[in-house]
Every structure is written in structure tokens, then in C-alpha cells.
Design a protein that fits this description.
About 5% of the residues lie in helices and about 35% in strands. The protein is mainly beta. Strand 3 and strand 4 form a beta hairpin.
């Protein structure tokens, strides 16, 4: 079995040392040690085990990307590890309320306002608390309507929705089957009824996908329409935590070693999203705060099955080459296959497949395609497209290549080689010293 695919088995069961840019949330406060949870559950001294089917009160990442899962007056920091008392991390909670739980939480995405961006908001009854660096901000708690007009008290869940995934930087608040879309800039709210979605006790945005948690299950939904695609609900213990034998996609499978990585393709799209592909899975490399997680390619590009030979980005389109076929996807918030594709590679780019690698540098209009020990240039503005230049390269067999602000990276097995530009690659007489694929970039083990 492909080793990279085996990594998928543990992709969502990472140690708490991973700083995910999007993980989970909750909170608490000033109560005597024998205080009770509002629902009659005494948790203060209990050893909670989320692998026994816990319904979370809230899930949120902090400004560093650590994800917190909340239940009662406890939290879990990350996808593995034991429960801890919430006031050990968010110390002021006990000073303001007898917080046996919190209702909802989210991390604000509002880059236009650095005083609010990346701050974590907790909700309890009719109050909202704002934290940064695990410290309560001055002036909080406040009435919810003071900070978020027209948002009701006693919320069930909340989740941020950045511009591009929602129309504007927004927050989605959940109460029953009503969803309140709150525009952060205008402070206007639109209310929708999503009766098809389970009542969410917590919500979580992770790697540009949205999850409604209910019981110990979750349902993925579209943040604007609420649409649910795929088979849901799914058990959270198989995806969002490490629960040992009996849970997860092959839980317990060893973590991939860096020496075992062998990429098929790599690219950076027009929004700066960086992807690496191996076998039937892909990994986001730019979202370090979310951790390094392989996913099936079909999760993002459902029309692609199996391995790809090369992937490159041009404008707001992403090209996938498989054999003698090419697929073109529009790279909006979510990728959409352009009507009429796939098409023959010869018809689209004027070259016969298969190919070993392909890349475009920045806003350039030339795609460089590598076959064997030759690199071909094709002008993407031409019609019809055809090879305009053919050059030898010093590397006999390339697995993948990508062009970034530092030049061209050529991948061969678990190593890559830096070249200052496509021309430097073409005229090089000797291969430079290799760099090893690192655990920091790929989440692999040395």
C-alpha cells in the first residue's frame, strides 16, 4: 500500500504539538470546587474521556492554531491527550461566572481590524468574553448584543467564515435550526433556517471546510447554503481525535517517514494555497496552523480518481494532468471542474502525455513541462497552444516540480533541488546539493 496513503490513516489524529490553524473550542469560571454542570453533570474532578462519545460544548482554535475542544469545565488541547480544567488555560474564567460550561466559541477572522483579528470569543448565556493569548481582554465580558447586534442569547454554536468562503468576513451563529450570518464589518445579520442540518452543539472551520458537531458525530456543510454533500453524519472519533484500536482509518498505523515520501506533483494556486500530491492523496503545505494532514484527492477535486502525473496553476485555474488527459478546475473558495473537461492533453496543450512534472512561475504565461530529461515551454496565451521551446535538463528523472518566490524546486523521492529559475534549471551542468523533505513541511518522521 502506498505509504503516503497510510499517513491518511492518522491524518486527523495528530499529537497536540501540532498547531492547527483551524482546530476546536470552550471555557469556564469562578465556582467552588463542588459546583455542578448546568445539565447535572459533575465534571470538576472527573476524568473525561472524549473517546467514550462526548458531545462537545464548543470547539475553537486560538491565535496560534492550537485547537481546543470544550466539555463542561474541561478542555482538550489538540487531537490527542487527556482532558484538563479549562481555567488552567483561560485563567480569568472563574473570576466572572460559575462557568460549568460555555455555549459557543470561535476565533475571529477580520484582518481589517488587528484589534479583533485572531481573538477568541466565548459565549455563555447573555455574555461574550474576548481572549487573546489566553488572556481576557479589558472591558469583557460584555452583553452579546453589545458586540454582536441581533444575535440571540444562549447560543448553541458559532464559527468564523472568512471572505471568499462567505461573501464577507462573517460569523455563523447557531441556535436550534436557525443560523445567523453576521457581517463583521457592517454588523448586519441575515437569519436562515437550516432544518436539514442537525442542531449543532459546536461548529468548527478546518482547512476551509465547515463541520457541525452533534452528539459524538459531525456533519460537513457549506457555510453559505448549508448544503450537505456526501454521506453524513460521521463519528468524530474516527477523524478529530486519536481513540486507538477500533477508531479511525486504520488507527495505530505508523506515521510516514520523510525518507518514504515520493511526490507525484506540487503546485501553488493564485490564492497562495500550496499543495503536494502523492498517490491518491494530497496535503496542504501553507496552512501550518492547521497541521499537516493528507486527504483523498477526491475530497477537494471529486472528479479526479487515482494518481496524477502533474499539476500546475495558471491564473485562477488549476490544471491536473493524468496520462493523456487534462482536467481544469476553477480555484475559487472550492474547486469546480470547468464544463467540457477532461480533454485530451494534445488538444489542450499541444503535447502528448504522459508527463513527469509541470509548473508556472508566478504571473508568467509559460508552462514548463518536463518529460524525461527534457523541458518544454508552452505559451498559455497562444491559440492553439504548442511547444515553443525544448531544452535539456541535467536530471534524468523528475517526480514533481513547483515554482515559488525563491525559484524552482525539483523533487526526486524524499529530496528536492533548488534552481533559481527555469533557465537556470535548463542550463545547469551539475546538479546542486539536495535538500531533504522536512517534518515541519510534511508532518513526517525523520
Amino acid at each position: 500500500m502506498n505509504v503516503f496513503f497510510l499517513c491518511l490513516c492518522v491524518c486527523l489524529a495528530l499529537p497536540r504539538s501540532y498547531a492547527a490553524p483551524a482546530h476546536l473550542d470552550d471555557m469556564m469560571a469562578d465556582a467552588p470546587k463542588d459546583h455542578s454542570h448546568p445539565k447535572g453533570e459533575d465534571h470538576h474532578d472527573a476524568q473525561l474521556d472524549r473517546c467514550k462519545g462526548i458531545e462537545f460544548d464548543a470547539i475553537t482554535p486560538d491565535e496560534k492554531g492550537n485547537t481546543f475542544f470544550f466539555k463542561g469545565d474541561h478542555l482538550w488541547n489538540g487531537f490527542s491527550g487527556p482532558a484538563e480544567l479549562s481555567n488552567g488555560t483561560f485563567k480569568e474564567m472563574d473570576e466572572y461566572h460559575h462557568l460549568g460550561h460555555i455555549d459557543a466559541a470561535f476565533r475571529m477572522h477580520h484582518k481589517d481590524d488587528p484589534t479583533a483579528h485572531d481573538h477568541v470569543f466565548f459565549f455563555l448565556d447573555d455574555k461574550v468574553f474576548s481572549y487573546y493569548d489566553h488572556t481576557l481582554e479589558k472591558g469583557y465580558p460584555k452583553e452579546i448584543q453589545q458586540e454582536f447586534p441581533d444575535i440571540p442569547n444562549h447560543l448553541d454554536a458559532a464559527v468564523e467564515c472568512p471572505k471568499g468562503e462567505c461573501v464577507t468576513d462573517s460569523v455563523l451563529f447557531f441556535k436550534g435550526n436557525e443560523v445567523y450570518h453576521f457581517d463583521i464589518k457592517t454588523k448586519l445579520t441575515k437569519t436562515k433556517v437550516w432544518s436539514h442540518l442537525p442542531n449543532c452543539t459546536s461548529a468548527f472551520r478546518w482547512l476551509e471546510h465547515y463541520y457541525c458537531f452533534h452528539g459524538h458525530s459531525f456533519t460537513r456543510f457549506h457555510p453559505v447554503s448549508g448544503e450537505v454533500t456526501g454521506e453524513y453524519p460521521k463519528d468524530a472519533r474516527n477523524y478529530f481525535m486519536r481513540c486507538g484500536e477500533g477508531f479511525g482509518h486504520g488507527a495505530g498505523t505508523r506515521k510516514m517517514k520523510c525518507s518514504e515520501i515520493k511526490l507525484n506533483a506540487a503546485t501553488i494556486d493564485d490564492k497562495g494555497r500550496e499543495y503536494a500530491f502523492q498517490g491518491s492523496v494530497y496535503m496542504r503545505l501553507d496552512e501550518h496552523r492547521d497541521g499537516n494532514h493528507p486527504f483523498p484527492i477526491t475530497r477537494q477535486w471529486k472528479e479526479i480518481s487515482g494518481e496524477v502525473d502533474a499539476v500546475f496553476s495558471y491564473g485562477d485555474n488549476m490544471y491536473f494532468i493524468q496520462g493523456d488527459q487534462v482536467y481544469i478546475f476553477k480555484s475559487a473558495a472550492h474547486y469546480t471542474l470547468i464544463e467540457g473537461y477532461p480533454k485530451p492533453l494534445k488538444e489542450e496543450l499541444g503535447i502528448d502525455g504522459p508527463v513527469d512534472a509541470a509548473f508556472v512561475c508566478g504571473d508568467n504565461t509559460i508552462v514548463h513541462i518536463i518529460q524525461g530529461q527534457k523541458m518544454y515551454d508552452i505559451d498559455l496565451t497562444a491559440s492553439p497552444r504548442a511547444i515553443t521551446r525544448e531544452m535539456p535538463i541535467p536530471i534524468p528523472k523528475v517526480d514533481a516540480a513547483v515554482c515559488d518566490a525563491h525559484g524552482v524546486k525539483v523533487f526526486i523521492g524524499p529530496e528536492y533541488y533548488d534552481f533559481g529559475s527555469p533557465m537556470v534549471l535548463a542550463v545547469a551542468k551539475m546538479i546542486p546539493n539536495p535538500h531533504k523533505i522536512s517534518p515541519e513541511r510534511f508532518g513526517c518522521e525523520e
